[in-house]
Structures are given as structure tokens and as C-alpha cells.
Amino acid sequence: MTRTPTPLLPASVDPDHAALWQRLQADGFGEGETALAAFERRVAEEAGVSPALATHLVEEYRRFCFLACVAGEEITPSPLVDQAWHAHLTDTREYWQRFCPQILRRTLHHHPGRGDPADAARFQAQYAATLAQYRYYFGEPPAACWPAPAGTRPSVPAPRLTGARRSAPTRRGVALWGWMLGVALLFAVLWQRHGPLSPLHWPGPPFLLLFLACIGLAWSLGARLRLVVRGLRRAALDTPLDVTELAYLAGGSERVADQQLALLLAAGAVRLQAEPHVRRQARLQSTTVAVPPALQRALAIVRAHPQLQQALAALQRDAAPLRRALVAKGLWLGHGQALCARLLGAAPLLALWTLGVMKLRIGLQLQRPIGFLVAVMVVVSVVALGFLLTPPRRSVAGDALLADREAAWRDGVAAPSLAPGSHLALPLALAGTSVLMTTPWADYHALRAPAANGRGGSCSTSNCGGGGGNSDGGSSCGGGGCGGCGGGD
Length: 489
Prior knowledge:
The protein contains 17 helices and 2 strands. With 489 residues, the protein is an all-alpha fold. The chain has a two-stranded antiparallel ribbon.
């Protein structure tokens, strides 16, 4: 992720406001040449994000400070911007004795919420107003740091079909035609020497040579037929998909369960109690921290199943409706379509297997050696069983959409989330618990993947009001940050 470019303020901005912005742009959040880098490292630890995102976040914190001073009303930061603010506030001498009087030239107070419903509604309104102010001065806020306000349904960015992805089916078609041409040429050569007899009556070596070539052809044809069935239903490239559906698309119900539980841990609503790498004894202890509506059902399930394995199983069962939703959107295969893909994929290999059985019978009748043919038949059987017993899950459109989301995420194009710890929801959906390895919740990843060695950083949360990203009052900076500030004195 690159450093956010310096934005141009509207031409009509007040000269005092322009001067304030110039001071903020020049400030390194401390004294000395290394102050800015040190602050970015503290923000990365406080928010549990990557150094690249922390750099972006510091620039968004500059903009928040500007808005807090010029808005003329209370404003509310996003959860990640609020974490940057917390990191700055912990250096009390720098914040109160230098930053406020010299850079802002006024005091900027932090007002956490009380967690009651009235606070939640007020903070949500303030967060929406903050985004409006942001758009006026700086343009559209980046979703990576400013999630969508409550009441809107965020979706991940629309797919971008790359040239490589578009050419994948073409490459498969070329491979199939290549096998067909090769088998046809080989058959023509062998026919010249052993025709007009049926290939079943050819001597063993030429038949085995043709049979081996036909394995490649049958494999390629089976894969092509399987792909055709998976691509029968097409999905629009702008299909709306929230992060929970994306998690199911990437890893099924198990991925959804991991995502929901990890977000509850990040929100502070659940605590993990377990010895390192002892799965069966792991327990979950719920707290009094409120969570947004998107996580309330998951929290109720965890409270009813305090054992980790039981909670995960219950969350997986609860994710079953997501499959039907993805089938309806054309991104997941229904039972009938999946069965058809398995049968058609195995059909060419089963036909070849039948041909081999016929040759075996002829060999036994003529008392010819059949050892090599039996070995090759075992290979054909294994490949055919692979097609039959491996159920396809995603449609072709689902594969393309998921690949695009992963590419966008790795390129640093983040999307809004439905839960607290919004910077974790999308990575959890796409990559699973491995993204927790450098966060305070690395122990959960260690329990889910004992071979991985996670190293957690430090992160503090506050019982803040919340305003955007579908949070309600009392969440741990969930979705809308803290109650905000009252501007300058």
C-alpha cells in the first residue's frame, strides 16, 4: 500500500483552515526525523495492522484531526482511525504539550461513549456526518480506513477480470485439442501397422501405448466437461457479496465459523482460555462487551457452547443458509449440478476403464501377459475415483469472483466490513486464521493450526460508542470508533 497522496483542499476553504492543514501535513507526530516512523510502528501495534496499512492510517488520522477542528460540531472517527488517535493520546506529553497547542492550536478532547442505546444512535449520526465532511474536503473516504455507516449494506468491490483469468478456459481448450490431435496421430500410425484389426486385438505393446495416451485425453476431456457443467450458470460481475458470504465461498462453513469467532475475540466479547495447542480443553468465556447486530447471533451461539470445538460445530451448522444464498447467486453449485459435474467428469475415464476391461478379458482368453495392463488400469481407476469422489463446490463464476477478491485484497484494496475489527473481517474471509499470526489473537490461530507459529503484538481497545460499520453502542470501537471529540476549545 503506497503512502496517501497529499489532497488538495477546496479553493473556497478558509485561510485559517488551509494554514491548519499545512501544519498537519508538515507534522511528524513528534520531534526528530524518526518520530513519524516511530509513530507509525506504534499505530501498527495498537491497531494490529500491517506497517503499510499503518502508514495509510496515520495519513487518515491527519485528516480526522483537521475535520475535528474545522467541523464546528462533534465528529466520530472510524475504528482504525480511533486506534491511531489512541496511540497518539498515550504519549501525553507529545499530544497535550506540543501537538494540541502548536499544531492544532486548540485542545482536542476524546469523549468515549457510555454504551447506552442513545449514545449508539448519536454516534452513528455523527459518523455519517463525519463522512460527509470528509467528502467535502478530501473526496471519497477510503473504505480500508473508513467503513460504511450503519444502515448501509457494504459489499466487496466488483470483480475485475484479468487477462490471465480470461485466458484460463482457453488454455484448457488448447490442452484438450492437443491431446485429441496427439491421440489421433498416434492411432493413425499404429493403424498403418496393425490395422484393419480392432485395437482390442492389437498386440500388447501398441495397445498399451495407445491406452496410455488415451488416459491423458480422458483426463483432459473429463476436466473440460466438469468445467462446462460448473459454468452453466453465470453470475453478474457486480454480484453483491458481504464478507460472511465471501468467507463461505472461500472455505465453506468452517471458514465462516473461524471468521465469526475471531471477530468476537477481536471485539473483546469473547476470551479464549486454553493451554497452547490443547484443542480439546479450550474454552470460551463471554464478556459483557456489546457487539453489533451482525455478530449478536454468533455471540449467542458461543455463550450456549462454551467449549471451543462445540462452538465451532454450532457456528458451522448456523452457516448452512449461506450455501443456499450462494447457490441462488450462481456462485456455488447445487446438489444436482455438483453430481452432474462429478459424473460427466468421470465419464471419459470410465469409458476408457471399460475398454481396458474388455482388453483384459481378451488377454485372459488368449493367455497373454496382462501385468502391465492391470497396473495401468489401477491408475485409470484412481483417476476416475478422484473425479467421482471429489465434489466441486464453487461455480466458474464463483472461482473468478473469489480470485478477484483475493487479488484486490493483496493489492491493498480493502473493503468495508460488517463487524468490529473491520480490518480483520475481509482477511479472515479470504485467508482464514493465518492472518491472526501477528495479532493479539494469534493463540486462536495456533489452536486451529498447531503447526503455525504465531507471534502476537499488543493492542488495546476501549469501550467506545461506535458510529459506522454497523456497530451499536458499547462495542469495542466496533464500526465507528469512539464517541469522538467536541472540537477545539
